[in-house]
Write a structure and sequence with these properties.
The complex is a heterodimer. By secondary structure, chain A is mostly helical. Chain A has one domain. Chain A contains 3 helices and 1 strand. Chains A and B meet through helix 1, helix 3 and strand 1 of A and helix 6, helix 10, helix 15, helix 16 and helix 19 of B.
């Protein structure tokens, strides 16, 4: 994905999400009564913040803590 | 009902044995045809069908006892055996054909049976036969992973057996919901089933063993063991509260590990943990809607997860590469595999019009209706993780990115394409016409997946989740490293523990032997010449290292020490016996 492509993709996402928010305001009948069911566009926050939380948690905390070299478990290339 | 019934599982097992003995040229037709017969037998079973076989001591084995719940599981298992059979038609190995069919047959046996003893029999058959799907890969890694797989499943199987022993000896012969009393049998059976469902902390075997299976074997492995366990959880443990939280932990755990994983099939294995988490959460919520959600999601999951494994297998078959960081640009070289993979990835992410959407959303809605907002939101977060690691990461790094010149070393056999095509078609058909699945679900429910509310929710959630991935793209490529998981405990410290305990035992044994030997030697030395007791032995009668020049009877006389030891030991034992008995 070159940077030009990236820009196009961002614009497409923005348009799709904007249309979905309008559709949500006009046509949706939420089943739940909590804030995240009734507030239009809550899932935008959820997707963006949740996505960052997962990526950063996995890449910045899990990976340095748990990743080792491929031969960590004695190589595995031969039978003992 | 005394009508003749055909057991689909036994048909599959028979298929396996026939496939193992016929010549290679015939085997492929058996592998495709046998499961189709099993599928037909499944359709011939109606709700309420029974097959009861008398056993010892007046016990009856309920080999078949069909109701709405196990029929739908039986249906998907027979469908999967058919797809898997077609996918593995090109295989040369008779052992793999036998193992895969026995494994699928065992899964159907567990699903259709009505009593504990038949259940444990087919359960162990599954564990034993699935092991060979890993060993057939015939690498040092797969042999080792297979042994670990065997040990974990022997542990789980024995827990289940112990629990079933308690149940059967108390007179409960039939499989039923046992959540009323939290007694020993409850916990033992739960641990046994939890091992197969890969509920943390006993999930390490799955991500350890599944990537080491054969290309075709992994497709079978991904479909049966965990989903049979989900069926058992629904049947036996529906409504067990804490399973709800275990499910959420699984869903997030698998999603996080998948983001950093580099091995294709290990990444997919983490998503088995994640998706089974949705089902386990449904079992924990325990309402009719939630149990329908768990059942429907197991059904959808088998279709799209096997499709993902089939596509990954096709990539490995063609390129010989299993690491994501060595792959790239395959969309143009393997377009059919690419399309199938995209369909499967959209399905697992829950994008509307694909089959993950119609089943995943039931469980999330059930969490909302049961008044569990935390569960609902965390499961949605897990959906974001699934989308990031499968749809975004795998599609981009394996199929789309430029700059990697991956060589196609051999053509993918046609039968693999056919199986992938069937899987992709089913994922789409069930996604567009959910009532094809909903009509078979075990409980009554009022649920419509295609409301504006649901659809815009997923469009927003997943559309926006693409943004962090693209912003962080330069850091998203997985590294040439392996990720430690909880199997570390039995691969590192446990090995050290076993080695140190056995060295301790060896040291004690050696020291004890040395001690006894010194007693024996001293005794022998003294008995060789009793005058030594009195320190009266003449110098000439002392033992010498050198052989004397002339004949000396003492040098050649038999030592009386050994007979003396025997006599005195017998004497002492006799005294002890007379004194104390």
């Amino acid at each position: 994905m070159r940077s030009l492509n990236k820009k196009k993709i961002y614009i497409i996402i923005a348009i799709v999400v904007a249309v979905s928010v309008v559709a949500e305001i006009l046509f949706a009948h939420p089943h739940g009564h909590n804030l995240w069911h009734t507030m239009p566009g809550f899932d935008i926050i959820m997707g963006f913040v949740g996505g960052w939380i997962l990526i950063l948690f996995a890449k910045q905390i899990l990976a340095p803590l748990l990743q080792r070299n491929e031969d960590y478990y004695d190589g595995g290339d031969g039978d003992e | 009902m005394n009508n003749m019934v055909f057991h689909p599982g036994l048909i599959l097992i028979a298929t396996g044995f026939i496939a193992a003995i016929v010549p290679k040229s015939v085997r492929k037709y058996i592998l495709a045809g046998g499961p189709l017969l099993a599928l037909a037998a499944m359709f011939s079973l109606s709700y309420g069908a029974e097959w009861i076989v008398p056993f010892i001591n007046g016990i009856e084995l309920h080999v078949i006892e069909v109701d709405r719940l196990n029929w739908v599981f039986g249906l998907i298992f027979s469908m999967m055996a058919t797809i898997g059979g077609i996918y593995s038609m090109h295989n040369k190995s008779w052992m793999e054909a036998l193992a895969s069919m026995c494994y699928a047959g065992g899964a159907l046996g567990v699903t259709l049976c009505g009593d504990w003893m038949t259940l444990i029999f087919f359960w162990e058959l599954m564990a034993a036969s699935s092991l060979f799907l890993i060993w057939c890969n015939n690498t040092a890694k797969s042999r080792k992973a297979g042994f670990r797989y065997l040990l974990v499943h022997m542990f789980g199987g024995n827990m289940l057996l112990a629990g079933i022993f308690l149940k059967v000896s108390a007179g409960d012969m039939l499989v039923s919901n046992i959540t009323a009393v939290h007694d020993a049998a409850f916990w033992l059976i739960l641990i046994g089933v939890a091992v197969n469902a890969a509920i943390p902390p006993i999930h390490g075997w799955l991500v350890d063993a599944y990537p080491e299976g054969t290309i075709t074997g992994s497709v079978f492995l991904s479909s049966f063991t965990t989903k049979v366990a989900v069926y058992c959880l629904i049947r036996i443990f529906a409504g067990t509260d804490f399973l709800m939280w275990m499910g959420v932990i699984m869903a997030l755990y698998g999603a996080c590990f998948a983001i950093i994983e580099n091995d294709m099939r290990r990444l997919l294995a983490y998503h088995i943990v994640s998706q089974v988490g949705f089902m386990v959460a449904g079992v924990g919520i325990g309402t009719d809607l939630a149990l329908n959600g768990a059942t429907a999601h197991a059904f959808s999951h088998i279709l799209y997860k096997s499709l993902l494994f089939m596509c990954a297998g096709a990539v490995i078959y063609a390129t010989g590469i299993r690491k994501i960081n060595h792959l790239g640009g395959l969309a143009r070289k393997m377009p059919f595999v690419f399309v199938c993979f995209v369909i499967a990835a959209f399905s697992i992410s829950g994008i509307p019009l694909f089959n993950g959407f119609i089943s995943k959303s039931i469980t999330i809605t059930a969490a909302m209706e049961a008044g569990q907002p935390a569960i609902e939101l965390l499961l949605q977060l897990a959906s974001v993780g699934t989308f990031l690691s499968i749809t975004m990461k795998m599609i981009y790094f394996i199929f789309l990115r430029e700059g990697k010149d991956v060589e196609i070393k051999r053509e993918v056999p046609k039968n693999m394409y056919v199986a992938m095509g069937i899987g992709a078609a089913l994922c789409t058909i069930y996604g567009i016409f959910p009532n094809l699945l909903y009509q078979y679900l075990p409980f009554e429910m009022e649920y419509h997946p295609f409301t504006v509310d649901h659809i815009v929710q997923y469009i927003q959630l997943l559309g926006v989740a693409m943004v962090p991935f693209m912003m962080y793209l330069s850091h998203m490529e997985p590294h040439e490293q392996l990720t430690l998981d909880l199997d570390w405990f039995y691969r590192k410290p446990f090995v050290g523990l076993v080695v140190s305990i056995s060295s301790l035992v060896c040291a004690v044994r050696a020291a004890l032997g040395e001690f006894c030997r010194s007693i024996y030697d001293t005794f022998n030395y003294l008995m060789a010449n009793p005058l030594r007791f009195l320190c009266l032995a003449p110098r000439a009668m002392e033992d010498t290292e050198e052989i004397p020049d002339k004949y000396d009877a003492d040098s050649y006389r038999a030592v009386i020490g050994e007979p003396m030891i025997v006599i005195m030991t017998v004497f002492l034992l006799a005294v002890v016996f007379i004194a104390f008995v």
